[in-house]
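Deliverable D5.2: sample structural annotation.
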Amino acid sequence: MSESDEVTGATRLHTAVRDMWGELSASEREVAQYLVSAQPENLLFASAQELGAASGTSNATVVRALQRLGYAGLPALKRELASGFTSATAPEERLKQRIAHVGHDLEQIKDRVFDEAVERLDQCRRLLESEVFEQAVRMLADAREVVAYGVGASELAARHVVLKLRRAGRRARFIGATGFTMADELLDLGRGDAVVILHPGRRLREFTVLTERARAVGANVLLVTDVPKGPLARHADVVISAPHTPTGITAESLPGIVVMDTLVLALASLDEPRAVEASHQLTVLRGQLIDRAEPKQRKG
């Protein structure tokens, strides 16, 4: 993490505490005072429970204090403190820092991973407003075909939603191509389709080309991203925030996968007969693929 990036994140935190100090409760002030006195790298790897214990409060108070200070949650604070961390520090050095902060105690390692996963998913759930969720569900329900695009770590979530949609009786396909090969994948995109973009926050030309193509042919765009107010969001019909991991301890695509599971279950509830029939056909096909011949007995 470069010094300038640390100062930027820390300055934002100090300013928020100064401006909101009069609005904080006594316990929230304890949290705020601890946050501004701690080293940014220590906050980066701390859980809400650990921050609550260190400030003499609780994890719930930590979350409330952060929200009062203008952060969506602890992952949002960590992301600001870690701004530029991935680009300024080599991967092997980031791994060394993660191990150094986590330690070698297996129970502690388990707690760290699960704590960060819970924090990210809790923040994702809070940020997913009911109106936005309903709009996303309706978009997918009305789609002729759903096209999911994801590259790198986001490919897993994109492939996952395509699999789940097909099993729910919906037409869906995955695109993960980049460069010139992506052009062939976009030829079949048409009016009435829904494009789901799993966007990790990195600016790639392919994302812009895909949204522009969707607009040109009359397809809708659902953007699932760590930067819901970024440039790409202006070209999307619906935007869902999926907090990125500031530490690399948990999978980048974790919130995206859970968001996709939520959307597909909602779709199945809207058209239960279709989902049930698709499940039945899947079971029939699987049964046909099972070799029911009795295994031959080996001669002694």
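Annotation notes: The first helix runs from residue 3 to 20. Strands lie at 146-149, 172-175, 194-199, 220-225, 238-241.
The annotation will be released with the project's public dataset once the embargo ends.
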